[in-house]
Design a protein that fits this description.
By secondary structure, the chain is an alpha+beta fold. The chain has one domain: 3-Layer(aba) Sandwich (Glutaredoxin), CATH 3.40.30.10. The chain has four helices and four strands. The chain has a four-stranded mixed sheet, with helices on both faces. Strand 3 and strand 4 form a beta hairpin. The radius of gyration is 12 Å and the shape is globular. It starts with a helix and ends with a helix.
Length: about 100
């Protein structure tokens, strides 16, 4: 699901389940490499974790709010607070470990 700063409050801050935000850009090759992994995990964790994407070129204010310095950056939010972050390309196993830390905490 693609979101902008307009949907952020409803989709992330008020979410009943943890949220993974993928800050990306279409021109970013590591972002493109991670996209299928992100999509696969969104299916595997459906109902337990929400996966949203933010295009840093289209919505730089949201990227600024999270002080995103490089992309891809994945930010894990639970109960409105940041619980983890991955900067740069990450494998499926690394993402699963980080997500499971937030879910199980």
């Amino acid at each position: 699901m693609q979101i902008t700063s307009k949907e952020y409050g409803k989709e992330v801050e008020k979410s009943d389940i943890p949220v993974v935000i993928d800050f990306y850009a279409d021109w970013c090759m590591p972002c493109r490499m991670m996209a299928p992994i992100f999509d696969k995990l969104s299916t595997q964790y459906k109902g337990r974790v929400k996966f949203v994407k933010v295009d840093v070129d289209s919505d730089p204010s949201l990227a600024g709010k999270f002080e995103v310095m490089g992309i891809p950056t994945l930010v894990l939010i639970d109960k409105g607070k940041e619980r983890g972050r991955i900067v740069g390309f990450a494998t499926e196993n690394v993402l699963k470990e980080k997500i499971n830390e937030v879910i199980i905490h």
